[in-house]
Design brief:
Layout: H1 17-20, E1 29-32, H2 52-55, H3 62-72, H4 79-84, E2 89-95, E3 103-106, E4 108-112, H5 113-126, E5 132-140, H6 144-158, E6 162-163, H7 175-180, E7 185-189, H8 214-225, E8 235-237, H9 244-249, H10 256-273, E9 284-287, H11 296-303, H12 306-310
Parallel strand pairs: 1-2, 1-9, 2-5, 5-7, 6-7, 8-9
Antiparallel strand pairs: 2-3, 3-4
Helix pairs in contact: 5-6, 10-11
């Protein structure tokens, strides 16, 4: 069995020809959860996505932010590091920041949006066969003008690399097709009542398990996969979500990495290695702290694509876009 993850920075471009023809919605793709939280520290400012209960505790000042930073930071690598590590899906939460540019957030303000977008574009400029999925999951305190500004920023940064959504059909989106047309950026924009040129939420369902139990998490993920729509992408969130009681219990000695990423690691790897891409199989799998354990998470997800070579499913693959019916 070939090691498809030997060169993580170029793994898409290095896939065998047969896999270049597979729709990306049927490939196994590693992604990161809350992708841009890597610069969060106890000095970060509280962001507008923080829960109401947190906002009421602002008077605790540095102590509150110290606790929040330990449970808000989900990644150790910046965008460039994640791309070099094979990550091709980014989970993004965007907010305005007073007297500043747009920022990514997760309870606290994290990385500035322009810096992250430019890091991604720099990578794509030097890796012309790689493709990224930018999933704009949530927006906070953004009005219509802010959304227009953000959309313009995406096009100003990536230019013709951006694939716009002319229709919701996705089975023709193979790596071959994207490379032929020089598309490298797929944007999912999860906002209703705002006209945008990107893919809507329904094209990339991302059910949230919302559990603190590893056993329940695996049951939910496995059950949901059986119901996925094979005409669209699909995101499996292999993450545990701490409750307020969890944070309070481990307020001085715990953090998200110790609670979720490290204890979950063995079960996560076992579950991933038992999966297959393709019809009713995994597509994007996301996790916290993708940098741990010598990048085994990315390597394991990417190498799942070997199973498509062993058992091809030609009825899934289309190289041409069929006529659009109205």
């Amino acid at each position: 069995m070939a090691d498809l993850a030997e060169d993580l920075a170029n793994w898409m471009g290095n896939l065998p020809d047969d896999l270049q023809k597979v729709p990306i919605i049927h490939l196994a793709i590693p992604g990161s959860h809350d992708s841009c939280t890597y610069p969060i520290t106890s000095r970060s400012k509280i962001a507008p996505d923080a829960e109401t209960a947190i906002l009421r505790l602002r008077w605790l000042g540095c102590i509150l932010k110290w606790v929040m930073s330990r449970w808000s930071k989900t990644q150790g690598f910046d965008a460039s590091g994640q791309l070099q590590a094979g990550i091709r899906y980014f989970d993004l939460r965007i907010a305005t920041k007073p007297n500043d540019c747009l920022h990514f957030v997760h309870g606290l303000y994290a990385a500035p949006v322009p810096i992250v977008l430019h890091q991604i574009n720099d990578f794509l400029n030097s890796h012309s066969k790689e493709v990224v999925i930018l999933d704009c999951q949530h927006f906070f305190e953004m009005d219509i003008d802010d959304h227009i500004h953000f959309v313009d920023m995406i096009f100003d940064t990536f230019g013709l690399k951006v694939l716009t959504c002319d229709n919701y059909y996705m089975k023709h989106l193979s790596l071959d097709y994207l490379a032929e047309h020089k598309f490298q950026v797929i944007v999912v924009y999860r906002l209703k009542h705002f006209k945008h040129p990107f893919y809507p939420a329904g094209c990339y369902p991302t059910p949230w398990p919302n559990t603190t139990s590893t056993k329940e998490l695996i049951q939910i993920l496995s059950s949901d996969l059986k119901r996925r729509n094979n005409n669209y992408g699909y995101i499996s969130q292999f993450i545990l979500t701490p409750r307020k009681s969890t944070v309070l219990k481990y307020v001085f000695g715990g953090n998200l990495k110790k609670f979720s990423a490290e204890p979950l690691y063995t079960d996560k790897m076992n579950w991933i290695e038992s999966q297959k891409p393709g019809k009713y199989g995994v597509n994007v799998i996301i996790g916290d702290f993708v940098d741990i354990e010598n990048l085994k998470f990315s390597r394991s997800v990417i190498n799942l694509n070997n199973k498509l070579l062993a058992k091809p499913e030609p009825d899934c693959y289309l190289t041409e876009l069929p006529p659009i019916t109205t």
